[in-house]
Amino acid sequence: QVQLVESGGGLVQAGGSLRLSCAASGSIFSIGVMRWYRQPPGDKRELVAAIISGGSTNYADSVKGRFTISRDNAKNTVYLQMNSLKPDDTAVYYCNAYLRPLEVGRWTDYWGQGTQVTVSS
């Protein structure tokens, strides 16, 4: 079965950096788009960044210039490089992929379990 596994979260001080990774495993025919969402404490989940299979990217205004999304298609992995972190970036970060499994053949959304990012003042 297809799974998404995030890694790289942790505790950092304001101004620091983290790099999140999300690896999609299983029998996958194609991955159309991969996204990073985040959910701050007591708040709603929001889109942070997205990258299409061809390489086009989009970012939330709050992270433009600080975060960079990239992907390694050979490894079915998406990354989120986070620089100049702020306390407001504190959230659980979730990986999302819209992909087509090899066996089922239907395009489906998949979610990772999330990884905690905490930025201290």
Give the termini distance in whole angstroms: 41 Å
Biggest sheet architecture: 7 strands, mixed
Fraction of residues in helices? under 10%
H/E series, N to C? EEEEEEEEEEE
User: What general form does the structure show?
Assistant: elongated
Number of strands: 11
Can you describe what's shown?
The protein has 121 residues and is mostly beta strands. The chain has no helices and eleven strands. 0% of the residues lie in helices and 60% in strands. It has strands at 3-7, 10-13, 18-25, 28-39, 46-52, 57-59, 67-72, 77-82, 91-101, 108-111, 115-120.
Sequence-ordered SSE layout with sheet pairings:
Blueprint: E1 3-7, E2 10-13, E3 18-25, E4 28-39, E5 46-52, E6 57-59, E7 67-72, E8 77-82, E9 91-101, E10 108-111, E11 115-120
Parallel strand pairs: 2-11
Antiparallel strand pairs: 1-3, 3-8, 4-5, 4-9, 5-6, 7-8, 9-10, 9-11
List keywords for this structure.
121 residues; 4-stranded antiparallel sheet; mainly beta; 11 strands; elongated
